[in-house]
């Protein structure tokens, strides 16, 4: 695994890349990609950072694991490549977007457009073995991504953190809630959404209202 990340993040995260845990993680990931099919493609492991640069970050969405089906994961949480069938969670994200902002349901499930506008689409674990959900959890990725969230919290002001579901909500302990805006709801997965914990959260509109109050450009969701 090449730990080359966009230069805007390189200095911020340099101490993580040189830490013992990250070197062990790197060895584990290299071996997994060598011996098994893994996702996302190696060149896209750090796509969330390549598309959303440090200085541009204004919104953070936290996912858990990359999709583990062939051709789905592209390094951005909840996002899939063009032409790929939208997974159920993404379908519900787009349905809420329709309800909230009266936008048309998107044809493409690729969320690069959001990332390029300053939305960090961060999975807690950045890699996974094909067809084995959670297979790369507990190997060091969470330490790395927790450090990312902590540094964002410490060094920035007025970020909007969209925390969807129980796993993401636990990350609030890493965030200075006096400095940042926290939006929480159920997870967009059908299990949660169909019980009434997702639809109607209006997170897309609320985020843009918060950004406008700070004289920042809203996201074209």
SSE layout and pairings?
Layout: H1 7-17, H2 20-35, E1 38-39, H3 47-51, E2 59-63, H4 88-101, H5 112-115, E3 119-123, E4 128-129, H6 141-155, E5 160-164, H7 165-169, E6 181-185, H8 190-193, H9 203-213
Main location: cytoplasm
Keywords: Cytoplasm, DNA damage, DNA repair, Glycosidase, Hydrolase
Active site: 65 (proton acceptor)
| Average pLDDT, all residues | 96
Q: Give the CA-based shape.
A: globular
The biggest sheet amounts to: 4 strands, parallel
Number of strands: 6
- How many alpha or pi helices? 9
Order of strands side by side in the largest beta sheet? Answer: 3-2-5-6
Oligomer classification: single chain
Beta percentage is 5-15%
Q: What series of H and E elements makes up the topology?
A: HHEHEHHEEHEHEHH
The gyration radius over C-alpha positions equals 17 Å
Helix content: 25-40%
* Secondary-structure content class: alpha/beta
Low-confidence stretches: none
Distance between the termini: 32 Å
Polypeptide structure, described:
One of its GO terms (molecular function) is uracil DNA N-glycosylase activity. Its main location: cytoplasm. It catalyses: Hydrolyzes single-stranded DNA or mismatched double-stranded DNA and polynucleotides, releasing free uracil. Pfam families: UDG (PF03167). The chain has 221 residues and is α/β, with parallel strands linked by helices. 38% of the residues lie in helices and 11% in strands. Helix 7 (165-169) links the parallel strand 5 (160-164) and strand 6. The longest helix has 16 residues, at 20-35. The protein is globular and about 45 Å long.
């Amino acid at each position: 695994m090449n730990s080359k990340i966009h230069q805007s993040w390189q200095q911020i995260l340099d101490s993580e890349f040189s830490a013992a845990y990250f070197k062990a993680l790197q060895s584990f990931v290299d071996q997994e990609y060598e011996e098994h099919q893994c996702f996302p493609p190696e060149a896209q492991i750090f796509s969330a950072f390549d598309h959303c640069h440090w200085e541009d970050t204004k919104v953070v969405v936290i996912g858990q694991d990359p999709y583990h089906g062939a051709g789905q994961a592209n390094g951005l949480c909840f996002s899939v490549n063009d032409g790929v069938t939208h997974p159920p969670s993404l379908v519900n994200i787009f349905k809420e977007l329709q309800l909230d902002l009266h936008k048309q349901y998107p044809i493409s499930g690729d969320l690069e457009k959001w990332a390029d506008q300053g939305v960090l689409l961060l999975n807690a674990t950045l890699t996974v073995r094909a067809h084995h959900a959670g297979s790369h959890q507990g190997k060091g990725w969470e330490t790395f991504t927790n450090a990312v969230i902590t540094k964002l919290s410490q060094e920035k002001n007025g970020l909007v953190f969209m925390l969807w579901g129980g796993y993401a909500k636990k990350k609030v302990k890493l965030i200075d809630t006096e400095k940042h805006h926290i939006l929480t709801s159920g997870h967009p997965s059908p299990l949660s959404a169909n019980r009434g914990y997702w639809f109607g959260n209006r997170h897309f509109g609320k985020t843009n209202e918060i950004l406008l109050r700070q004289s920042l450009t809203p996201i074209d969701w």
